[in-house]
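Exercise 4. Each item below gives a protein and its sequence. For each, produce the structure-token representation.

Item: Cytochrome P450 (Kutzneria chonburiensis).
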Amino acid sequence: MTNAVEAAGLMLAEPGTYTDNDRLHEGLSLLRRESPVHRVEAADYRPFWAVTRHADIMEIERDHERFRNAPRPVLSPRALDERLEQMVAEGRALRTLVHIDGREHRLLRAIGADWFRPSVMRRMESRVRELTRRSVDQMAALGGECDFAAQISMDFPLYVILSLLGMPEDDFGLMRALTQELFGNSDPDKARDLDPASATLVIDDLFAYFGKLAASRRATPTEDIASTIANAQVDGEYLSDQDVLSYFIIVATAGHDTTSGALAGGIQALAEHPEQLRRLKADPSLIPTAVDEIIRWTTPVTSFMRNAAEDCTLRGVQIRAGDALLLSYPSGNRDEDVFADPFTFDVGRTPNKHLSFGFGVHYCLGAALAKMEIAAFLQELLPRLDSLELAGEPALAATNFVGGLKRLPIRYSVTS
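Answer:
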């Protein structure tokens, strides 16, 4: 058993683990039972503690003073960690809401928070519905068969984000490619190359693109979140170029790739659970609970890291100041102590205390937008959908951060 538990811990540092949900959840279930706070010392990675129980993840998320995002907010290979540390020293590293803590985090978060409140999202609804119609119309035009992940779900959320930022649709292709390279740096179909340190080159390209956007919005502000960020002040001072560009990057990339992964995974789940699809078509009032279940089921963000600011004990395990802890969201979202029949896809599941948006001060800024996008897509698709089935083998991206389907061949009947 000890060897199996060690292997289950080590798999969390393997991007390929996330291409096989059966293997992933078998290992996570074992860790929850046998070693829910588990020390992992994997080759090419700095050591970390894997935290796999819902209650422990919640305890850590709530206590943002004792468990900090900095200096290691995401799991990455040692070589990339070292390269990013060098970029921090050079002032060229990302400094997003994911990377900072305390008062600084609170003040920076407030800059964009108003744009993601439900009341503001409702004003975005007409644009979102226009884009959902365009996407479902595209499905109809494709003649009943498509790769939903590559042809539909990859594009729809990105167009929404471009609208929010006020970016031209002509820049769609570039932003799509850079987002895929940033989050897919471990996947051979997405990475610029498979050298972990090459991810920093993508950050350089994103900085170059958004530097031009920031200069434009400072010279001529418009009614979009890009102008709000570019002209924001904290304590009477404009944000640094590094903070402005980092803010643009987190809004543009995280708001796109995660929603894309959830939407594709939701369509796969409905295709594989036709009784749930029939239930949802018969009762559209279930769409809000279906959206949360899709987000729980897919869990696009596989983990975030927290760093212990002081010595402490977690589930009887001694954690030292400076230790890093990996919060495994796919594991928390299948915790048998919280979810009845956690491996059952249930569009009517309630309550649904999933962890896919995090919790506490670092709760996902774009949660309301993501849920609105998925709900709007279902509201447009379901009345027009007569049939849905898989038309080939789905494929998940190799990643241990933001993941999801990269291929989802489906066969369907959608009315024009």
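Check: The chain has one domain: 2-414.
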